[in-house]
Amino acid sequence: MTSLTTGYRALVIGGSGGIGSAISVMLEGDPRIASVSTLSRSTNGFDLEDEMSVRRHSNALVAPFHLIVCATGALTIDGSRPEKSIRQINLSTMMRQFAVNAVGPALVLKHFAPLMANKDRALIVMLSARLGSISDNRLGGWISYRSSKAALNQIVRTASIELLRTHPSCVLAAIHPGTVETPLSAPFSNGHHRLSPQEAARSILELANSLTPEQSGGFFAYDGSQISW
Questions:
Q1: Distance CA 149, CA 97 (A)
Q2: Which of 67, 163, 197, 209 has the fewest Cβ atoms nearer than 10 Å?
Q3: Residue 224 backbone phi and psi in degrees, to 5
Q4: Whole-model pTM above 0.90?
Q5: What are the C-alpha distances in Å from 223 to residues 72, 111, 186, 201, 226?
């Protein structure tokens, strides 16, 4: 991460997942980094759906951070696969999709954005999905997941405007990691090229490293292309 100050500090939320763990390992190999912290439900009880948990873990960390990656998200909820039709909408499943994919990341921004360095360059990456693009939707289906990721994109866009006022050197972006070889994508990726977690991690970090303050609040694919809303 050559755009960040030498001795930068990083935090990976969702650090036990396929992409999150690959990002953590890659960051640990950067000779310019001072420390990498990770949070996840399985390793330290971080619960994205519980604001008290989010607040408690943010309060336990020592600021400032120069890089935060929120590598969380869910496609299958409580065993329920994405809907093929609006007739399959289930209230509780849809609410959980929004809780995990939109509200949880919003709480992360609420409690962790204040920990960002406000003088040095800083980066916040929120993992989104191309399926959250409204204009790119040609196939339909997967309504809850698509809608929750579209909501996340709006959260990122709106929060970036507010963040600019207090952290003018901080870039906040939503990044689509591609189809990655993880348990999340495995049931749905037949016939599709999948990136390894290591390839995805490298692409995400390289893209984040290249983003400018003028691009804050944007929605990008792992290859650097901008995705339409």
A1: 9
A2: 209
A3: 95, -10
A4: yes
A5: 20, 29, 21, 11, 9
